[in-house]
Amino acid sequence: MRTFDCNCxxxxxxxxxxxxxxxxxxxxxxxxxxIDGGLMSSLEAIFYEDSWEADSRLSEKLxxxxxxxxxxxxxxxxxxxxxxxxxxxxxxxxxxxxxxxxGYQLNDPHLQTLCDALIQYNLPLVINLRMEDNRITYMFHP
Length: 142
Fold this sequence. Notes:
It contains 6 helices and 5 strands; from the N terminus they run E-H-E-H-H-E-H-E-H-H-E. The protein has 142 residues and is of the alpha/beta class. The chain has one domain: Alpha-Beta Barrel (TIM Barrel).
């Protein structure tokens, strides 16, 4: 049986240190735990205005690894369509959204537009409702 981690992240979180912040370090940890691969997203992409700037670097790092790329998209951001197209051209395997962090509800019409595009590209949508426990975000409340 193949074991797959569908919630991997690479990169740095601005408010605390992340020990396993590269695909290589994640692979070491996964191998020790008997995990074969995963769906990986960029932590920095959550914060960038142009999320593809961070996702493109991750895409390069994932080449030749057992990880599939889940691109971060904020459907409220103007220009997300061109970012998605760049991701599709580079071979992303899913799109991940962060409605709690980016400030929209799941019934937002912008999200429906994104879902329509994902159907066109035959890509799954992964929803992260929350990135951190609200009790530990004393300096910044997303």
